[in-house]
What we know:
Layout: H1 10-31, H2 33-51, H3 58-72, H4 86-95, H5 106-121, H6 128-144, H7 155-158, H8 164-173, H9 187-197, E1 209-214, H10 217-224, E2 239-246, H11 258-275, E3 280-284, H12 290-300, E4 306-315, H13 331-334
Antiparallel strand pairs: 1-2, 2-4, 3-4
Helix pairs in contact: 1-2, 3-4, 3-5, 4-6, 5-6, 9-11
Amino acid sequence: MEPQMNDRSPVVRALGVVKWRLGKLVRLLSGGPLARERRTVQKGIREYRSAAGQDSDLYLLRRNVHMIEKGLTMRPRRPSFALEYIGVTVAAFGRVAPSDGDAPSSEFAWMQSVLADYFEATSEATSPVIQAARGQFASIESLVGERRDDGPKPVSVLSPNIEISALRQLAERRRSVRWFEDRQVLRQRVDDAIAVAMESPTACNRQPYRFEVFDDPDSVRRVAAVPGGTRGFGEQIPGLIVVIGDMSAFFDARDRHLIYIDGSLASMGVVYGLEVQGIASCCINWPDVPERDAQMRELLGLADYERVVMLIAYGYADPEGLAPTSTKREIDAVRTYRVLG
């Protein structure tokens, strides 16, 4: 409610109203949900920049190698490209190279293969930037051993063999289950579902999320008590996954929404990965409530640049429990084919 100033002059009243509204705006910007998100984004950008030149700048490396790999798929392929960032990319690649005797990770093998393809594709380039990066890459390769063929591949090799009818049946039969049997899900089955999720697309392959999994009764109970959407059934959840987005994956605020987009794409992979193994799940909303956010941050020990995206409860469904039908809209209500005039 705006302040009452009927006993003052119109000018004074107008100034008072302006002052009151400005104060309200300041309070909103400094303490509201948008302000908290802005602070998280800023801290993420600072963390991203502080990682530059360190072994931890994997987000930069993933993004740059992904862009190089896209360049290798272009038609026609340019004889030279990535001049703006090939130097810092190879330098970062050298920093994450495995130590003597350590086997390279699959991610490192992919980066090595893409960079090798890049230098082969730019073999006739005369740019001193490319030439310098080529020499640095060669010296790194001499220390890490044989490379694998993990670069771009023909689409025909990657085509799945799953029928649309089977996928649609999976989507139609899956329901949010809130009542579970009192038995634990093997961690390997959860890992298999998460492995499906990890194949989900992310912006520039940065993968700005992680899954924290809780399957001991005390931890599940404590975590399940934080979100409001578990009221009435949280005490008997066998397993719980917290999807956490990492704002330090980004160098600019323009990408602030990607933890929610990429994290949600991956979460659907978890849900389907569990479902095909006979494990039910329930997606739990995470609204931006200050008190709950603070409680979850303290409980999980989250960094200032991390945010919860959502939660996923999972377990074997109680056959006597009920699940909402949650009928979906007709396709014509959600799909429009358009032609721009």
